[in-house]
Amino acid sequence: MTVNQASMTSNSKYKNSLMVRTISGARVTPGMLTEVREDQIRLSLNKSLLNSGMLAKSNEHKKYDLDVEIVGVTQPSISADVEVTVNVYYTITGATGKKRFLIIGNGYAAFTEYLIAGPRVRFATERAIQNNFKNLITELELDK
Length: 144
What we know:
The chain is of the alpha+beta class. The protein has a domain of 94 residues: Double Stranded RNA Binding Domain. It is built from two helices and four strands; from the N terminus they run E-H-E-E-E-H. Strands 1-2-3-4 form a four-stranded mixed sheet. Strand 2 and strand 3 form a beta hairpin.
């Protein structure tokens, strides 16, 4: 689920400045074939922010707190080809206030990749989360 993106340009306001503070909404819900766990989200998001050059080196070096609220995970109950959508609110809090972003990530896994439904849904969910992180990083790179 980690995004392997090159470091940002030095003029980004989020360079080496974000620290993930809270993650909420990561849980198993009735009908979901694959769980979305907080520890997996935290680890993958921290690695993605590190790879993009946005993660602060420590709590003392942070300029912004990043709060994560997973508000929706749409998974099919039964399908040959699987598409999963993950909707997340990211709130960035700094000395000058808060910004909130709704980021949507989609993931797809074909029947030909995994013949068994469980792994196919898990793989599509992981891709959706990874694409959500990519979209977040892109949004933050554009934020001035």
